[in-house]
Amino acid sequence: MLLEHLQGKLAAIEAQSLTRFTRTAETGTAPHQTVSGADGVARELLMFCSNDYLGLAAHPAVAQAVIDGVQRYGGGSGASPLVSGHSRAHQEVEAELARWFEPHIPSARAIGFCTGYMANLAVLTALGDADAEIFSETLNHASLIDGTRLAKASVQRYAHADVAELRRLLAASRARIKLIVTDAVFSMDGDIAPLPALLAAADEFDAWLIVDDAHGLGVLGEQGVGSLEHFGLRSERLIVVGTLGKSAGLAGAFIVAHETVTRYLLQAARNYIFSTASPPAIEHALLTSLALMRGDTGRERRAQLRRLQSRLRDGITALLARHPGLGWRLAASDTPIQPLIIGGNAAVMALAAALEQQGLRVPGIRPPTVPSGEARLRITLCATHTDADVDRLLAALEACVGLSS
Prior knowledge:
Blueprint: H1 2-15, E1 24-25, E2 32-36, E3 42-47, H2 60-73, H3 81-85, H4 88-101, E4 108-113, H5 116-127, E5 132-137, H6 142-150, E6 154-158, H7 163-172, E7 177-183, H8 195-204, E8 208-212, H9 227-231, E9 238-243, E10 253-258, H10 259-268, H11 270-273, H12 280-294, H13 296-322, E11 329-330, E12 337-343, H14 345-357, E13 360-361, E14 364-365, E15 375-380, H15 387-399
Parallel strand pairs: 3-13, 5-6, 5-7, 7-8, 8-9
Antiparallel strand pairs: 1-2, 2-3, 4-10, 9-10, 11-12, 12-15, 14-15
Helix pairs in contact: 2-12, 4-12, 5-6, 13-15
């Protein structure tokens, strides 16, 4: 009975062009990567789908640091951080991140997690108790949504970037603790949250501002510190979640906040207390990756990203002008995430398949990840892409225009 029930659900998913499947990477993360598809055939593809924005996953110094970390620490950490899994490498990464954020969060302290998903669940369940009310942005990442569902706090949602609606909700709240929760860079749209206005609302209504900067860290700010540096923000009300598997090129995540907040999380965040710590070899390598992010390498690669973004946007804008009835739309984005909104599920998957036939991997994103009718290609750029790579994508899109006519 259960198998028949699930088979019916799978058939319904397929009928809506929503079936998902994994591909197998045969080589490391890079713009040109050998990938096996559902048919098991390995092909080299030009990838526009990685969150390795600075291209550090394949940086020789990072690779060598992983080797050095394994030689020093071995494989896994062996236990949760509070038992025996918190190594010297974990401690040094947390201390370095606290130094990064001290200009933006007074008395900053960082606490590490295995994934950004875990960090978001931790901060929302630990702080979102029965005395709290959560004010969550409509387009927040799934991990933030799931965190609000697991929290004991009541939850209010405000429309995307609608600070006026948020202020009305805050003014009506009688909760002792108010938590405003938002992505910094929205992962499917690429736009940046109005953080200065959100922080001003937090100040006025005595709230905390929890910012998931997964896609801003390393990309935004002169030194790559992310959205807080980008806007020049400083407040003890700020709580930042960051991931280290995107721009940092490795794995892991962290929460950084006033040290009273992180001391409490150490006692109350079940995801931290009851999970095995991340491998210390990776933590050791993160010290190298973080140094690259804030040094000349990071500055040069952020500048390269901005150049590539302009080239791509100019090219797609010109394509849309040549084909005004096409129905495609380029979302407003000043980050490496450049969504090309196509519309229907079947149309976007046909376009993604046609691009893959030309040797390019650009994923089609469908509901429930994005709203119904707004299926899109999520084009992501890495600093290790070249002008020629971007031009190849533009030429391939031009060749595919007939699919939507």
